[in-house]
Specification:
By secondary structure, the chain is of the alpha/beta class. Helix content is 63%, strand content 13%. About 9% of the residues have low confidence. It holds the Pfam family 3D.
Length: 318
């Protein structure tokens, strides 16, 4: 084969390689642009969902506070009812004592008191006195009935309001659950899209034509008892009340205690083990509990203050 033939073959091969690169480049660039546009769309979706979740958390927190207040008001109303019952009983006893005194004095009724008058002046005086006594008794009875009815109405109104708040709590929980699921899906897609973007950038710049498996390391293998370990900051709070899940707050060192979480990180209802605290259930939320932060519950302020703020490992149980 002579030099001229070799030169022609070399020129043809070089032309084919150059043309192939020219044709391939726009394809990679277009795919990269589409991927980046998709990434921006997903980031926007995540931000929007994140804002919606913040709004729902605020509603749940406000709803929880309202339920706690109503719970206290219902207790106070019950005390008022018991006091009203005592007052009614005391007035009833007073009536009985008066009737007994009349019987002992030989007068069995108001009519007999009037009929035993000595003269007209005494008759008029006794009628006036009995009229005042009866009027007073009737007024007291009416006031007690009115007071009792007002308290009953107040208690019924509080119960109705509490039922509305319970329905709102359920609605908010359903909304939060759906939003949490949606943002999890969007973040998963965003993670995959970001990984794809890295691969396309590497291909386009030709600095790295190989790609690694996009699965994330879990840091450590899961055991039979837990599926995930999170590094978090733990604060503490105290005081009896009702959680965002509608359950009473509790601290049970031999069982499961209450903790507040960001439901985007740890879904409500999750059972966990908190390093240095023990087993717990994610039953509560709070406006300041965002991201990798949890709030553990204690019955006393001194215990909560003693806990302070500390880094902990949180194990998500199976």
């Amino acid at each position: 084969m002579n030099k001229k033939t070799l030169s022609v073959i070399f020129t043809l091969a070089l032309t084919i390689i150059i043309n192939a690169n020219i044709l391939a480049a726009p394809s990679t660039s277009d795919e990269l642009k589409q991927t980046q546009d998709k990434k921006k769309e997903l980031q926007s979706n995540v931000q929007d969902l994140d804002k919606q979740i913040d709004d729902v958390i605020k509603k749940i927190d406000s709803n929880k506070n309202a339920m706690n207040k109503i719970s206290q008001d219902i207790k106070k109303t019950q005390v008022k009812l018991e006091d009203a019952e005592k007052n009614s009983k005391a007035q009833e006893d007073l009536f009985k004592q008066r009737a007994r005194a009349m019987y002992i004095n030989g007068t069995g009724s108001y009519l007999q008191v009037v009929l035993t008058s000595d003269n007209l002046s005494d008759f008029i005086s006794r009628v006036d006195l009995i009229t005042k006594v009866i009027g007073y008794d009737n007024k007291v009875v009416a006031q007690l009935k009115e007071q009792r009815q007002a308290i009953e109405n107040q208690k019924e109104a509080l119960n109705n309001e509490n039922n509305k708040l319970q329905a709102l709590k359920t609605s908010n929980e359903v909304t939060l659950s759906k939003l949490s699921k949606d943002i999890k899906e969007q973040k998963s897609l965003l993670s995959k899209t970001t990984e794809k973007e890295k691969q396309l950038v590497a291909m386009e710049t030709e600095t790295n034509r190989t790609y690694k498996n996009g699965s994330l390391s879990r840091g450590m293998s899961s055991s039979a008892s837990y599926s995930q370990v999170l590094s978090m900051q733990a604060t503490a709070y105290a005081g009896d009340g009702i959680t965002a899940s509608g359950t009473p707050t509790k601290r049970d060192i031999n069982g499961y205690s209450t903790i507040a979480v960001d439901p985007r990180v740890i879904p409500l209802g999750s059972r966990v083990y908190v390093e240095g605290y023990g087993y717990a259930i994610a039953e509560d939320i709070g406006g300041a509990i965002k991201g990798n932060i949890i709030d553990v519950f204690f019955y006393s302020e001194s215990e909560a203050q003693s806990w302070g703020r500390r880094p902990v490992k949180v194990y998500i149980l199976n």
